[in-house]
């Protein structure tokens, strides 16, 4: 008993000592960080005068390890080797992928056969591949063709590499396979599904042999596997065909760990009816954004604005997405013919779209260092900092790059007049013709409105289309006419912009300029031969618009232009009449010389015959 009491006392003493160390640790950490803060402040004061270019640390903040190294090295404070060694020895995750989403090279040697391994975990057989201990994982739920289908495993291989994570394909369906299919738990490869309702009905008894609870148990085992084996804390789900139905229940079971889902050719509208659960209720189980990829026979309810789509869109606005594969039959992801160039292209697109969507939500950008910060930098013209973000994979354009009113970074750069920022965004695949905002304007519209001539020229050099119209039907030339940006107007005209585009009220730029009394704009447009007497939707000409707003000088300018063009037309008509008369005379002249020529030819024959006669007479005399 004495020994036991002694042991207990020693254990309590050890616990008290451990507790004291834990309480002291935050204080030491705080002291180290205070020292580091002073050093950092000094560095910032010195460095701010030298350069305006932001470093990655300024964008994303220094890591704890880097901060501590600087503090110890510069301050020369006391070392705490035990704590530091413990922190360094712990292996951290390899990190997020950088740059653009990796393309799927289906012709590469590693894409010809699966690269992962099969294993068994808690009575569940699964295929796994990828980077472990990197926080992210994907569970791929195969379609009817089973977990051994080569294309399914190649998809898992590619996704795992593209997102620098871990991927598993669990074996879900019953054994033996339907009619002895070759993939252990799937249907035969030659099983053709042309009519979803009719052909799937033959599989109903096999597919619905077990309830969703049976399959959900397997999904939970797969989730435990990626947690323990790969250290995953953020999990994405890819459901293909039949697997999309199981993905709904699986995502619900993951709760906070679930990040996003990709549903290829989903069968929720059929399997939900078999299971007795409404499709909106199934989709409502996803606690994260969803990407739907839709083949030819998929209902329109999955599309943007459809009933099924809006269930997820209501929870994750502007994150729910839909991709059109309407030219493809059901099951093309698993069974499409790669020898057919059209199907090959769509299969590759489906693979890459999957990786892109998963990467976006499994590796979210740090606060202040993502899409919003790129727009901010574009508006400030900080090209170097922009490049660092773009190199890390922040999209330069497209839906993900837009703000709440759908304005892309290129519009921010154009508004503030940063031509170089527009060039950089275009180099990183931004579309300079991307529309955004309530008015659905392009960057060219915005640059013209704000009189950024250099940006206008740059955008035109980057193939910006000067004919594109906004929601009111106005082209950039309308904007120049309204805001009086003469230099921008001349640049647009030099780039062959249409001189008389019509907006939704049938107004030309001349109408707009007359409404605002822009004499210089009207003069330039007249020089470019804009229509002087065009009528808007109310039948008003530019002169009438100017007259109604009492722009008398402008009225005189229009009258002079009308008179000038009438005189020009008069002289042009005279010239045309002269040309017509000359043409008529030429025709008559062509006819007359033909008779004279014949006479002349006759005379020449006679004259040519006379000398011959004289010669004959002379010869006789001789």
UniProtKB/TrEMBL annotation:
This protein's UniProt keywords: ANK repeat, Repeat
Pfam family, one: Ank_2
Keyword Transferase applies: no
Ranges where the record places region Disordered: 1-101, 571-622
Keyword Aminoacyl-tRNA synthetase among UniProt keywords: no
Extent of Acidic residues compositional bias: 65-90
ANK repeat boundaries on the chain: 439-471, 472-504
Biased composition (Basic and acidic residues): 35-57, 571-580
Biased composition (Low complexity): 600-610
InterPro entries in the cross-refs: AB_hydrolase_fold, Ankyrin-SOCS_Box, Ankyrin_rpt, Ankyrin_rpt-contain_sf
Protein name per Swiss-Prot or TrEMBL: Uncharacterized protein
Lineage per the UniProt record: Eukaryota, Sar, Alveolata, Dinophyceae, Suessiales
């Amino acid at each position: 008993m004495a020994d036991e009491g002694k042991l207990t006392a020693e254990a309590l003493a050890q616990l008290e000592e451990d507790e004291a160390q834990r309480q002291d640790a935050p204080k030491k950490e705080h002291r180290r960080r205070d020292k580091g803060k002073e050093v950092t402040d000094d560095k910032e004061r010195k460095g701010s005068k030298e350069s305006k270019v932001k470093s990655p640390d300024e964008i994303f903040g220094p890591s704890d390890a880097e901060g501590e190294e600087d503090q110890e090295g510069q301050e020369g404070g006391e070392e705490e080797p035990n704590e530091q060694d413990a922190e360094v020895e712990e292996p951290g995750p390899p990190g997020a992928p950088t740059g653009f989403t990796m393309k799927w090279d289906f012709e590469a040697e590693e894409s010809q056969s699966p690269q992962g391994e099969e294993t068994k975990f808690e009575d569940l057989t699964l295929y796994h591949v990828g980077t472990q201990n990197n926080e992210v994982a994907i569970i791929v739920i195969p379609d009817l063709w089973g977990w051994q289908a080569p294309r399914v495993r190649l998809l898992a291989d590619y996704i795992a590499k593209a997102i620098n994570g871990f991927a598993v394909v669990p074996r879900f369906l019953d054994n033996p396979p339907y009619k002895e299919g070759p993939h252990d738990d799937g249907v035969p490869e030659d099983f053709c599904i042309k009519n979803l309702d009719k052909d799937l009905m033959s599989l109903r008894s096999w597919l619905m042999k077990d309830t969703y609870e049976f399959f959900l148990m397997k999904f939970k085992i797969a989730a435990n596997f990626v947690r323990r084996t790969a250290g995953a804390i953020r999990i994405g789900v890819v459901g293909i065909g039949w697997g999309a139905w199981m993905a709904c229940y699986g995502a619900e079971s993951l709760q906070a760990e679930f990040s996003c889902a990709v549903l290829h050719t989903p069968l929720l509208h059929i399997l939900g009816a078999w299971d007795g659960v409404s499709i909106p209720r199934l989709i409502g189980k996803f606690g994260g954004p969803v990407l739907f990829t839709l083949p030819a026979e998929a209902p329109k309810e999955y599309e943007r604005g459809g009933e099924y789509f809006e269930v997820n869109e209501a929870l994750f606005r502007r994150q729910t997405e839909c991709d059109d594969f309407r030219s493809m039959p059901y099951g093309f992801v698993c069974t499409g013919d790669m020898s057919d160039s059209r199907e090959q292209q769509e299969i590759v697109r489906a693979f890459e779209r999957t990786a892109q969507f998963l990467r976006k939500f499994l590796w979210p950008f740090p606060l202040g260092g993502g899409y919003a910060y790129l727009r901010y930098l574009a508006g400030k013209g900080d090209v170097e900092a922009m490049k660092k973000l773009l190199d890390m994979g922040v999209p330069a354009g497209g839906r993900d790059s837009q703000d709440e009113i759908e304005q892309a970074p290129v519009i921010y750069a154009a508004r503030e007049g940063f031509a170089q920022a527009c060039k950089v965004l275009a180099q990183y695949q931004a579309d300079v013709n991307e529309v955004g905002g309530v008015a659905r304007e392009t960057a060219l519209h915005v640059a013209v409105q704000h009189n950024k001539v250099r940006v206008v020229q740059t955008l035109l050099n980057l193939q910006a289309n000067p004919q594109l119209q906004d929601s009111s039907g106005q082209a950039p030339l309308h904007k120049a006419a309204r805001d009086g940006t003469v230099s921008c107007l001349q640049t647009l005209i030099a780039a062959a912009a249409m001189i008389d585009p019509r907006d939704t009220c049938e107004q030309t730029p001349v109408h707009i300029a007359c409404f605002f009394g822009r004499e210089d704009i009207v003069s330039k447009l007249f020089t470019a031969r804009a229509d002087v007497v065009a009528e808007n939707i109310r039948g008003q000409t530019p002169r009438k618009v100017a007259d109604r707003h009492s722009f008398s000088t402008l009225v005189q300018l229009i009258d002079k232009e009308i008179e000038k063009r009438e005189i020009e037309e008069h002289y042009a008509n005279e010239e045309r009449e002269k040309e017509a008369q000359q043409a008529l005379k030429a025709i008559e002249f062509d006819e007359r010389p033909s008779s004279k020529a014949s006479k002349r030819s006759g005379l020449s024959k006679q004259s040519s015959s006379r000398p011959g006669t004289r010669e004959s007479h002379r010869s006789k005399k001789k």
